[in-house]
Amino acid sequence: MKLTVIGFWGGYPKKNGASSGYLLEHDGFHLLIDCGSGVLSKLQNIIQPEELDAVLISHYHPDHIADIGVLQHARLIQGFLGEKPPTLPIYGHQFDEAEYSKLTYKDITSGIAYQPSDILTVGPFQVAFLKTEHPVPCYAMRIVAGGKSLVYTADGSFKEELIEFSREADLLLCECNFFGHQNGKSAGHMNSIEAGQFAEKSAVKQLILTHLPQYGELSELVRESSTEFTGIIKLADEFLTISL
After folding, report:
1. Do residues 85 and 75 lie in contact, with contact meaning Cβ atoms separated by under 8 Å?
2. Going by C-beta distance under 8 Å and a sequence separation of 6 or more, which residues neighbour residue 188?
3. CATH number, domain at 113?
4. Contact 228, 192 (CB under 8 A)
5. In degrees rounded to 5, what are phi and psi of residue 237?
6. pLDDT tens by residue, 31-70
7. What's the total number of domains in the chain?
């Protein structure tokens, strides 16, 4: 299983960047996790929009879905220019019907509802879900393929259930929207200290801090997390690639 970070900014993309978007590849299958602002432009440095096999959405805040519409139009236009791509499945929850309905567009994309209590199979990937503490319904994901596991927290403040959900994962892709001296609980986000504590208690092998703030010295996030977590810590960065 290979992860490539496409976008990693929280809230909105910093200049020339992109908000949440992560490409997972295994056995030739291309799965995009979230599709925030700027993601479609950046994605084309790795693969073309018509090469995606599926998209999986954690929740419907704009920094996680803003480029769904342009992804739909990209595949529509490619159909006019050459061979029409197959209908792209976009998996999302149904707890916001208005936003969920936008996942289906003509015969270009088809919205498919996942049931958070069930394991979802998407190509070679098995996905389990955990509801996060966030202002809107949002789901963390534990994704397994080829005997390896990746946990993506999506957005949410820390809660105890995350520890067992993430237990001994090969990689924890953890939101870190605040520095250690800040309290992100009311906003539904974690800070760097909490991310480190969470990673340590879960005994994960590697921690990637993502959904980053647009201000401050970002290397401080790693330093602060390292006071709690003794394993490998990295900052999400454009096109950072990790093979598991």
Report:
1. yes
2. 132, 133, 134, 135, 138, 155, 156, 157
3. 3.60.15.10
4. no
5. -150, 155
6. 999 999 999 999 999 999 999 999 999 999 999 999 999 9
7. 1
